[in-house]
Amino acid sequence: MSKSIDTVEIEGVKLHLSHPDELPLKWVGQRDLMCQLLAAWMIIHDKDYPLNPRLLGKPGVGKTTLAYATAKELKREVYIFQATMDTRPEDLLITPVVSSQQEIKYVASSIVTAMIRGGVVILDEGNRMSEKSWASLAPLLDNRRYIESIVAGVKINAHKDFRFCATMNDDASTFELPEYIHSRLQPQIFIDFPERDDELLILKENLPFMEQNILAYVVDFLQRAHRKDERYTVRDGINIGRYAGKIIKSQKATLDSALKNAVKQILGEEALVYLSSGPKVVK
């Protein structure tokens, strides 16, 4: 196998590689979840191989952030593949593209690129994919650790440092995983809503420029919603805080008015029930 920075040749077929994702993501709090993921990826014997964990939770609780930050702790390249209901097997593996010279160029997906380069791939929202797409990854997710591309006519073995995980949202707009895939995506790591202190730390990390009383108001709103099992997440809280700050700056609105307006416009009028009578000041 010969390779350059952007291409690799396997079985006489030249593959064009994807680029890793570089994102400003940092995991805050709940260190035990990162330890669970690190344990799943660990190899403890020369006959051992890494597991392929499944990160489960409601949208916006930080599943992708957890996986990304854990991969970066291992100092690996990180590749994120966004799964959809339209994802095809060739999208997951190798796609033929007609070049400007009217020649067929084979482009490796982020998954295959991570396999070749020994990176970490995060298959985001994996339960949005059909069984046909999952079937193309079956040999990669057990001790065989390879894929076969019918399009390019090659078989590719995963680098020993390659790691895989899938995130899955707890909502209705998803497919049921086939059993043979379910058994390959283990362990299951559940990510729940964070406690108040951790949630406040996440808001501060993402909105370091925001006034502390705005962040305290938002985290109190989120905690009330969590206790009623609403689906509002810290991602919603970040959007509320950011929009409220913009309203205050642009419209000279009061803090209370801006926050109520932000909650209503982002989550709907029904969310106003979880607002307190006024923002709580935090020093």
Structural class: alpha/beta
**What is the terminal-to-terminal distance?**
59 Å
Helix count, DSSP H or I runs of 4 or more residues = 10
Q: Mean pLDDT, nearest integer?
A: 91
Strand adjacency order, main sheet: 1-2-3-7-6
Task: Give the secondary structure arrangement, pairings included.
Elements: E1 2-3, E2 7-10, E3 13-16, H1 31-41, E4 54-57, H2 63-73, E5 78-82, H3 89-92, E6 94-98, E7 104-108, H4 110-117, E8 120-124, H5 131-135, E9 146-149, E10 154-157, E11 163-169, H6 179-182, E12 188-190, H7 196-206, H8 212-227, H9 234-251, H10 255-267
Parallel strand pairs: 3-7, 4-11, 4-12, 5-8, 8-11
Antiparallel strand pairs: 1-2, 2-3, 6-7, 9-10
Helix pairs in contact: 1-2, 7-8, 7-9, 8-9, 9-10
Structure description:
The structure is a single chain. This protein has 283 residues and is α/β, with parallel strands linked by helices. The protein is built from ten helices and twelve strands. The chain has helices spanning 31-41, 63-73, 89-92, 110-117, 131-135, 179-182, 196-206, 212-227, 234-251, 255-267, and strands at 2-3, 7-10, 13-16, 54-57, 78-82, 94-98, 104-108, 120-124, 146-149, 154-157, 163-169, 188-190. Strands 1-2-3-7-6 form a five-stranded mixed beta sheet. A hairpin with a 2-residue loop joins β2 (7-10) and β3 (13-16). Residues 278-283 have low confidence and may be disordered.
